[in-house]
UniProtKB/TrEMBL annotation:
The chain crosses the membrane at residues 30-49, 69-88, 142-164, 176-194, 206-231, 237-255, 262-281, 287-305. The lineage of its organism: Bacteria, Pseudomonadati, Pseudomonadota, Alphaproteobacteria, Sphingomonadales. It comes from Sphingomonas aurea. This is Flippase-like domain-containing protein. Keywords: Membrane, Transmembrane, Transmembrane helix. It comes from the Bacteria.
C-alpha cells in the first residue's frame, strides 16, 4: 500500500514540498506472522549448538575482575543497538521494547548469518511499530548507509595507520592493506552515483542516519581499543591502531557470522603469542561469543513463549 500525502487544506501538495510521512496499514499475513518467530527459532538452535563447545570454566578463569573492564564491555556491546534504536525511533516511533528486538537483530547477524537480523527486525517491526512510507526501504537504506560509512571509516583509518604497521609484529603487507582498503571505495562510489535510485528516504534523514552510523563506528572502535588496553596496558599504541584497522576490515566481510572469532583467529595467525596480544584477543572474542549465545537463548526463548501465549 502506497501512502497518499494530503495537505492540511485537502489539496495535493507540490512535489517539492516536504510533508511528514503517514503510517502505513500493513496486512499481517503469513510473512508477518511467521518471519520473526522462524528466525528466533534459528537463533535459539544456533546458540544451543554453539554453546556445546564453550568451556565456561576456562572462560571464567580468564575473565578480568575489574569493574572498568566490564563497564567498557557492556557499553561497547550496547552501542550498536542503541544507535539503531535512535534511528528507528524517529522513523517509526519505535517503542522502548524495540531495543530488545534490535539486540536480537544483532545476535542473529552474529550467530546465524549476516543480514538475517535485518529480516528478523523487519518481521518484528511490522507487528509492533508504527511504520511509515516504505518499511523495507527504510531498513535497506539504514543497512546500506551503515556499510558505506563503515567502508569510509575503514579506508580513512587504514590510510592513517598503514605506515605504523612496519613497527608492529603483525606482518602486514602494507601494499596489500592499501589495495584492500581502496577496493572498499568501489561500492561507496557506486552507491553515491546511484543514490537517487538506490535510497528510499529523503536526504535530510539519510544525512542524519549517516552521522549516527559514524558516531557509532567511532565509539565502538574506541571502546574496543580501550577494552584491549585495560587488559594489556603495556602494549604500544601502534598495536591497538593496527588491530583496530584489522577489526574494521574483518567487519566488512559480508554474510560472515562470529566476526570477533574470525578477528581473533587472524590475530593469532599474524602475531602468534607476541606479548600476550593473542591471548587477550581470544579471551575477549570468547566473551563476546558467550554473550551472544546466552542472550540469544534467553531472548529467543522469551519471544517464542510470548508468541505462543498470544
Amino acid at each position: 500500500m502506497i501512502p497518499r500525502f494530503i495537505a492540511n487544506d485537502g489539496s495535493q501538495p507540490p512535489s517539492t514540498t516536504a510533508v511528514p510521512l503517514v503510517p502505513v496499514a500493513l496486512n499481517k499475513g503469513v510473512l508477518t506472522r511467521w518471519l520473526s518467530p522462524a528466525i528466533s527459532i534459528a537463533i535459539l538452535l544456533a546458540a544451543l549448538w554453539q554453546l556445546r563447545s564453550v568451556d565456561f570454566a576456562q572462560l571464567v578463569r580468564m575473565v578480568p575482575r575489574s569493574a572498568g573492564f566490564w563497564l567498557l564491555f557492556v557499553g561497547g556491546y550496547l552501542i550498536t543497538p542503541a544507535s539503531e534504536w535512535i534511528i528507528f525511533r524517529r522513523l517509526w516511533q519505535l517503542p522502548a521494547r524495540g531495543f530488545v528486538a534490535l539486540l536480537r537483530k544483532r545476535i542473529s547477524n552474529e550467530i546465524v548469518l549476516g543480514y538475517s537480523g535485518e529480516l528478523y527486525f523487519y518481521g518484528w517491526a511490522r507487528r509492533h511499530a508504527t511504520m511509515v512510507g516504505a518499511p523495507f526501504g527504510a531498513i535497506k537504506d539504514v543497512a546500506i548507509l551503515s556499510a558505506l560509512v563503515a567502508n569510509l571509516c575503514t579506508l580513512v583509518l587504514a590510510m592513517a595507520t598503514w605506515r605504523l604497521f612496519a613497527g608492529t609484529p603483525f606482518g602486514f603487507d602494507t601494499r596489500l592493506v592499501a589495495v584492500s582498503a581502496a577496493c572498499m571505495t568501489i561500492p561507496s562510489v557506486t552507491a553515491f552515483l546511484l543514490r537517487k535510485r538506490l535510497f528510499t528516504l529523503r536526504q535530510p534523514e539519510l544525512i542524519r542516519i549517516a552521522v549516527i552510523h559514524f558516531v557509532r563506528i567511532v565509539a565502538t572502535t574506541v571502546a574496543a581499543a580501550l577494552l584491549w588496553a585495560s587488559v594489556l596496558p603495556s602494549a604500544p599504541l601502534t598495536w591497538w591502531l593496527a588491530l583496530a584497522t584489522l577489526r574494521l576490515l574483518v567487519s566488512r566481510l559480508p554474510l560472515l557470522p562470529n566476526k570477533d572469532i574470525v578477528f581473533a583467529g587472524l590475530v593469532a595467525f599474524t602475531v602468534g603469542n607476541a606479548s600476550g596480544v593473542t591471548a587477550v584477543m581470544t579471551m575477549i572474542a570468547a566473551i563476546w561469543l558467550a554473550t551472544h549465545l546466552l542472550l540469544g537463548v534467553v531472548l529467543a526463548a522469551y519471544e517464542l513463549a510470548t508468541e505462543r501465549a498470544r
